[in-house]
Amino acid sequence: MVMFSVTRKQSAPIDGQKPGTSGLRKKVKVFMQPHYLQNFVQSTFNALTTEKVRGATLVVSGDGRYYSKDAIQIIIKMAAANGVRCIWVGQNGLLSTPAVSAVIRERVGVDGSKASGAFILTASHNPGGPHEDFGIKYNMENGGPAPEGITDKIYNNTKTINEYLIAEDLPDVDITATGVTSFGGPEGQFDVEVFDSASDYVKLMKSIFDFESIRKLLSSPNFSFCYDALHGVGGAYAKPIFAEELGAKESSLLNCTPKEDFGGGHPDPNLTYAKELVARMGLGESDSQGEPPEFGAASDGDADRNMVLGKRFFVTPSDSVAIIAANAVESIPYFSSGLKGVARSMPTSAALDVVAKHLNLKFFEVPTGWKFFGNLMDAGLCSICGEESFGTGSDHIREKDGIWAVLAWLSIIAYKNKENLSGGKLVTVEDIVHNHWATYGRHYYTRYDYENVDAGAAKELMAYLVKLQSSLPEVNKIVKGIRSDVSNIAGADEFEYKDPVDGSISKHQGIRYLFEDGSRLVFRLSGTGSEGATIRLYIEQYEKDSSKTGRESQEALAPLVDVALKLSKMQEFTGRSAPTVIT
What we know:
Helices cover 33% and strands 24% of the residues. By secondary structure, the protein is of the alpha/beta class. Monomer.
């Protein structure tokens, strides 16, 4: 057995190591600075209670982006020096963010141990490569992201750190082959177990969904399928699940080889960046690829986000979570005994609210950040949740889950078509969405992002919108002066959330204008750093009249867009005549 010793390395605080809701994200060259990664890892160990570190089992893996392999070896050496008993690593360092959550919650090691936490190496949907992004975050024993109390401690530790512990003489571990490597240290044996990246997650998915019914759907001559991993870690799960378990042709799997630079692309599953899938599904600028498949989906770099498409048809993330919730009990065995409740992030459209009311379900509107959903799930209050930024999930884990969402949609399509897979007309993705709108109404929805706006101007705009709320009659007068065909504003506030589980209060979460007809305008500010701020404007028009749910979104939203831009004096405050991005 190879022995190792512990070295105390002198260090010093490094500015700007404040983890956000998704951990610490910076350019690779920042992480490669001397002591940068080490400082953050040691600050994390120091923020945890002793029993969560000494003698504990921890997971270290990620989406495989550039610098991951180096970072894994550094964290293994630091874990050994800090008294960790065992490190679990997905083969080749690959585990999707949802799979990490599943491994923490479900996996039992060869020695009977359970993991108490994980370092996840990902910058989510951001590009990878030597000149691109890297990230690290810590997840707790429930499989969910570290709560604010822990991330605040980590940040405070980074501001005072003066040394870190590392086993410099521990040799690098071969993470390409499964198996256990054992070492001896001052506190006894230290193991590194490399395990198959997919098996635990596949097992969990098979316990949730009816794979046999999905297999019948995928083998039907009526149905065709396409999945794009965007060269992210989702590719490590695509072949085992879609091809081996469900019988999909391997030709239906696009970009499913995980790459350190995501093939030079931007691994963000939306209509802008998932270009190959969008073209194949008939939504590109030219329709030269022949007949599109009936169903298409993509996931992001770490496979926690998803996009769902039908033939020449885009499903908005807000509609997606509402449709999954409306159909889950009959379509997905895991939910057959009923839903505990549903939740969405505040900026996400109110499509889920209407389903919850219709089905008499508990409903929660939370700030942006998956940890708020996790609290509700741990308390048994929520089964299905989602956010407008392409994140959907359930209480099977404590992260959003891209492949879970794809399997949920395939389950719904399979259920709707159980009588006509050998012939007859297929109930398509578009049919399912249109039928949903006919039952619940349609929430036309768009998001305008104004990026790198002067931070001072952005704050002035938000302060102006808050001040306007003091007199609703005055606001309605302004609105009617802009567009007389828009409903009156019934209420306006700055969103504040009191967590029903732990009583914590989250303030200043966005400015809302709520209309009498169920429509909404939401303004949020994010990233008031040195490069300026981003103003996000969410515009939502609710339409109950089924004869009007088939309009083009731009046409249906035009009056509210006009009101939003003029009411907020967007151009006056920011100097921008158009947003940077529209989704």
